[in-house]
Amino acid sequence: MRHRLLLVLLFSIWCGSYSFGQSPSASPTPSTETRILGSSLEKHQDNRKNNPQRSRKRHEPSDDDIVKVATDLVINNVLVSNQKGNLILGLQKEDFIVTEDGSPQTIDIFSRTETVPRSIVLIMDATVANGPYREKSTEAAKVLVDDLASQDRLAIVSADLKLRLDFTNDKTLLKKTLDSLNRDLDYRFYKSNSELRSNYKGLERNEFCTLVAVLDEMFDGGERQPIVILESDGNLVIWLKPDKDSPFPVSDSNVYKKWSRKKYLPNFGFSEVKEAIEQSRVTIYSIIPGLRFLGLSKDEQLARAKITLTNTNRFYGWNKENNLPEIIPYYQYSEVETRIAGQTAMFKVAELSGGFADFIEKPEDAWNVYSNIFTVMNNRYVIGYYPANKNRDRKRREVTIQVRNHPEYTVTGRKAYSLPQ
Question: Looking at residue 259, which CATH number applies to its domain?
Fold first, then answer.
């Protein structure tokens, strides 16, 4: 805890140093051995019942670790756009107004995000439904690798809780990892590999478990500009525990929900996902492979469900084997409900963190989506302040950021935060 707080407080000094062009020290060569994440997930499950003062990050703090500080530096990474959706560039510190729970705040740190080194975690989904998009997506993700600045670092995680490559700026190694990831997650080979099949427990290792584990275990509070890019359809949100923060309720008659095996389900709900996001400084960009279902009529959704199922079955060669086209109508309603739940959850994850969500509706869209993400990352503003409210009550705080004299501008950023437990 002491180290986390000190690192956060030193962020302002660090941020200023990069404004004057200083270079970071070279990062060590990361291990290429796959490591399993998720040691923190048990805390989310147990502490809901037993310990509301849940500790986070990579170790359990003792009383000796606690440092009494009057303030915490709050960092918000924001995007400004006009009514046409065009980005507003060239703003200065004096152009922004920040309030917390309605009280004005003094901006202590201000910078363009392109001048601040980034620690990025790319999480890629491992589920069957994303198979038709995976090859193009892993190739398009190389856009991120090519555009990394020398001081940026990227880590690659698959959404089965596996850290495939730790933070590095070695572009050759990153691309090799993406290539191997594409092969490892290809279910056309998985279904004939008995070793993989016997070791894979996909239900307890989903994109939301992986996201929470990444937020808890890979960012210690001292990162310069922490970012997560989460590529997933979000469908496995239907297997989280229902709670008050569930983005979209799924009926018990949903055929996919019925397939779940209780012993593999995470013992927490979307509330824990929300809490992990609000206690982090991480900006999350959601990439959703698949046709968009949100905002369409029921007939359009059912038609898209049929297309989605047909394309997935064709990709894996299941049509002839299982005669699936004849039973597609049975699955269409569950497909619609599951897709809406997943897409709603992916938008919510991005919204909570101040990021944004985008769709890869056709595999070839992947290059534009990844390229746009980097453009957005480069054109945001880093705003930091020490809260006027020095009461460390760990309550949720509402944050509003506006551009002075421009009420028509939209500021996209984190709207709330809470102090880590």
Answer: 3.40.50.410
In this prediction, residues 288-313 reach a mean pLDDT of 92
Cβ contact 282:370 at 8 Å: no
Chain mean pLDDT for the chain? 79
> Does the pLDDT of residue 26 top 80, yes or no?
no
Evaluate whether residue 393 is within a structural domain.
no
The total of other beta-carbon atoms located within 10 Å of residue 83's CB is: 8
DSSP 8-state assignment for residue 87: B
The label of the residue with tokens 């995007």 reads: 79
Confidence of residue 200 (pLDDT cuts 50, 70, 90): very low
Q: Report the interhelical angle of 328-353 vs 298-316 (nearest 10°).
A: 100
Our count of domains for the chain comes to 1
- Calpha distance 155→143 (Å, rounded): 14
Tens digit of each residue's pLDDT (9 = 90 or more) over 104-155 = 999 999 988 877 889 999 999 866 667 778 888 889 999 889 999 999 999 9
| Inside any domain, residue 100 | no
Residue 203 lies in a domain: yes
d(CA 41, CA 6): 25
Q: Is the C-alpha dihedral spanning 74, 75, 79, 80 positive or negative?
A: positive
> CA dist 276 to 16, 268, 390, 412, 413, Å?
28, 12, 22, 20, 16
Higher pLDDT, 320 or 216: 216
pLDDT, tens digit (0-9, with 9 covering 90-100), for 95-106: 999 999 999 999
Order of strands across the sheet with 397-403? Answer: 103-105, 96-100, 397-403, 416-417
Strands 283-289 and 226-231: parallel
Task: Read off φ and ψ for residue 98, nearest 5 degrees.
Answer: -120, 130
In a domain, 415, yes or no: no
Classify the phi-psi angles of 358: left when phi > 0, otherwise alpha if psi is within -120 to 50, otherwise beta: beta
Rounded to an integer, what distance in angstroms lies between the CA atom of residue 118 and that of residue 74? Answer: 17
Q: What is the pLDDT of residues 254-276, one digit of tens each?
A: 888 877 766 566 778 999 999 99
**What is the DSSP pairing of strand 162-168 with strand 35-36?**
antiparallel
Rounded to an integer, the average pLDDT of 237-243 is: 89
* H or E, element range at 373: helix 366-378
Burial class (CB in 10 A: 0-12, 13-18, 19+), 302: middle
Judge whether 352 and 277 are in contact, CB under 8 Å: yes
